[in-house]
Write a structure and sequence with these properties.
Order of helices and strands: EHHHEEEEEEEEEEHEEEH
CATH class: Alpha Beta
Largest sheet: 11 strands, mixed
Bound molecules: zinc ion
Shape: globular
Number of domains: 1
Helix content: 10-25%
CATH superfamily: Alpha carbonic anhydrase
Distance between the termini: 47 Å
Strand content: 25-35%
Length: 253
């Protein structure tokens, strides 16, 4: 039996409320409800609240479609210092998120951001030549100035993902508060592919309030998860993916 323990550390909870695709630093106590279908779906996000105006008015929005003929770059290198974190997991109503509870950072070209959380989308939000992957992992980082950087990793169906197995085996099916699954941990340092060539561009959160100024790094080499693992996620979220947005001439480096 999985033993659940509510994480009482208020700092952890506060950090969850202040980062992530769905919550901005300025978010109110009662954010306006949004979703992926119907009247509260992505086409309407910008109209749901003045706080979400960037979703419709922004010019550097995410995700985008990537032309795979454009070579992903190894420079500047993604220097990742990811470590093993206890499994603190929750369903925020829009995705399943793991609160990163260890020291860890991403450094690119001299800029450093601390790891805050990672979460998933199905199907992938970034597409290659218009084609989505089965899922996408977003590792979200933030620096002391509140600026964000995200590493996106496409997940294709294939070999079971042993690194992420503790996540896929403990997905909260209902909206929930962060809980630590005792005895389980995730070695985030082992989750990325060896080749960290990535497409980089300036974009946004892919969920309301769609805040811009997010440094995106979409890793070219996908990782895999088994059909069983993917099914476990899509049984909860069968589509939590924002459609691709116009690149508006943005360079991809
Ligand atoms: Zn995301």
């Amino acid at each position: 039996m999985v033993r659940w323990r509510v994480v009482l550390a208020s700092l952890v909870v506060l950090s969850i409320l202040s980062v992530g695709c769905g919550d901005d630093d300025e978010s109110q106590a009662q954010p306006v409800e949004w979703g992926y279908e119907g009247d509260i779906g992505p086409d309407h996000w910008g109209d749901l609240s003045p706080e979400y105006a960037a979703c419709s008015e922004g010019t550097e929005q995410s995700p985008i479609d990537i032309d795979s003929s454009f070579a992903a770059s190894l420079e500047p290198a993604l220097e990742v210092d990811y470590r093993t974190t206890p499994l603190v997991i929750f369903n925020n109503g829009h995705t399943v998120e793991v609160e990163y509870a260890a020291d860890g950072a991403l450094t690119v070209g001299g800029d450093t951001w601390e790891v805050r959380q990672f979460h998933f989308h199905a199907p992938s939000e970034h597409t290659l030549d218009g084609v989505p992957a089965a899922m996408e992992l977003h590792i979200v980082h933030q620096n002391d100035d509140g600026e964000r950087a995200v590493v996106g990793v496409l997940i294709e169906e294939g070999t079971a993902n042993s690194v992420l197995a503790p996540v896929f085996e403990n997905l909260p099916t209902e909206q929930s508060a962060p809980m630590e699954v005792e005895g389980e941990e995730v070695d985030l340092g082992a989750v990325l592919p060896d080749d960290l060539a990535a497409w980089r561009y300036d974009g946004s959160l892919t969920t309301p309030p769609c805040s811009e100024g997010v440094r995106w790094h979409v890793v070219e080499t996908p990782i895999t998860a088994s059909a069983t693992q993917i099914d476990a996620f899509t049984a909860i979220f069968d589509n939590n993916s924002r459609p691709t947005q116009s690149a508006n001439g943005r360079p991809i480096d």
